[in-house]
Amino acid sequence: MTAPRIAILPPDVADRIAAGEVVERPASVVKELVENALDAGARSLDLEIREGGRALIRVSDDGSGMTREDVQLAIARHATSKIRDAEDLVGVRSFGFRGEALPAIGSVAMLSIETATDDGAGTRIDVRGGTLDGVRPAARRRGTTVSVEQLFFNTPARQKFLRGARSEWRAILELLHVVALVRRDIRLHVTHDDKEQLALAPAASLAERVHAVWGADAADRLLPVDDIQGSIRVSGLAERPSDVGLGTRRTLVTVNGRAVRDVGVIRAAEAAYRSTIPSGVRPSLLLELDIPGADVDVNVHPAKAEVRFRDRWTVERAVERAVRRALGTEDAIAAVGVVRGVPDAPVLGRPLGVDSLRQPMPAAPAPLFESTGDTAVAPADVDAAVEADDEIVVPPLFQFHRTYIAFERPEALVLIDQHAAHERVLYERFLHAFEGGEMPSQRLLFPLTLHLSPAEAEVFETERDALGKLGFEGELFGGSSVLVQAVPSPHPRFDAERCLRDTLATLTGDREASAHARHTRLIATVACKAAVKSGDLLAPDEMRALYLALARTTLPAHDVHGRATILQLGWGEIDRRFGRA
Ligand SMILES: Nc1ncnc2c1ncn2[C@@H]1O[C@H](COP(=O)(O)OP(=O)(O)OP(=O)(O)O)[C@@H](O)[C@H]1O
Ligand SMILES: [Mg+2]
Q1: Residue 420 and residue 441: Cα distance in Å, rounded?
Q2: For a surface tag, which of 121, 237, 417, 457 has the fewest beta carbons within 10 Å of its beta carbon?
Q3: What pTM was computed for the model?
């Protein structure tokens, strides 16, 4: 008889293997210990790290502490105070629930815990590579200090995979930044090799913590997000489109206070930036989702780094909407110097954001500019436009540099880039027309003949319907010529021939995958080519009309390439430069 080839592993070996799931590197130990401290109600954390956590990780808290009996249970597998049965897992709010972390850490390191509750005497317990090595009294005040030394001393294979101290430290610091942002209510003090690395007082808001952790620059680039959709609340910070790509990109997603990786949520948030930033650059996003506990399963990943939503689609739509709303608010406007919003004096004469989303484009948008004299454009119904916005008081406007429209408000000198602003206006109008609305177009008395290159003619042929919706009607003839019978009439100086030519030329060689992406690009291109240019002298009426039209867009602060349309120069900053403040 041959000996059986299969044998049950001795428990200490099995434990070390299981530990691999929880304890991958020093940063994962830090994560588990910090989460335990937070679960114990700590308000203040002190961390001491040595050699990137390879030599020492010590976490001291002022939480509940443990009694002598409890601390001995804490190091046993599946021992937890946080849930009692499987049902408690639904909607669990504590970080921990498995009862795995301390035994896992204890099986691959030298672990010691000193702890005391309010009324009990203190206890110290030592565990060496999975074996209990003494329980004795210890004097200390309420709270717990967990020390982990010589991580992976008994698992050489794991130890070999550790990076250098610097890189392990970086991973720890990154994790601690996340902790600091998620739990901005706590005090956090951290040293690495005796050098102070973080000293954070409790902060009142996420923005304040971002400021403390990543600096003023990072904080200034972010806009507040806060929106409730059904039972889902999405709050946090999203990068101002005009700043995207300029600094380090950072993302953080939390679900019910737990930091998770979630590509879907990030993608949904990025979708909200459509038409405000070039494709390819990606915004910084810090998003906090609050969802009823029953709608999310936290027990799907060994290190709890992912969650499963019962209805992912609804969650992602709520995220997209929340970010979209943030991008349409006053806060989204680019600024030089600190410009604090004055609630009763919105930049464009009406509150942006909420309202502009609730009442999107009027059914039949009026043409932007009044006809000024000798052009062949149909007379524009400017009165209608003004009437629709009679709650808006347009301030005196000035044109500078034939490029900017300037006006003043109590807090700032405001500049509008006439081309960028008009591009945003036309983009939204063309989009509206494209989706079935009406685009004022003008039948030409004398049709235009355009001689195109074969590639341009091909673009015309494929996009004929799409161009038709934007107001360009024409027929291809003789292979590569186009007879244009009708054109849109966005403003009196509009050069239809040039716009169509430029658009077709821009779109040749465009290999966008989906029809949707192609059309979005077509609309953006026509909007860009049709908009007034810098260098165009604008009449007072035209400036007024542009101001009103911009105020009615959903995302007034950005053109479709991620450039700002509006810039505020804070009077405070101007005073400072003149030495007045
Ligand atoms: N810093 C602490 N202060 C007070 N109690 C603690 C502390 N750390 C651990 N405990 C107690 O020890 C128990 C075991 O901790 P452990 O981290 O192993 O499991 P858990 O947190 O319950 O679940 P998980 O494995 O998901 O982290 C906890 O349930 C808690 O009761
Ligand atoms: Mg735990």
Answers
A1: 22
A2: 121
A3: 0.81
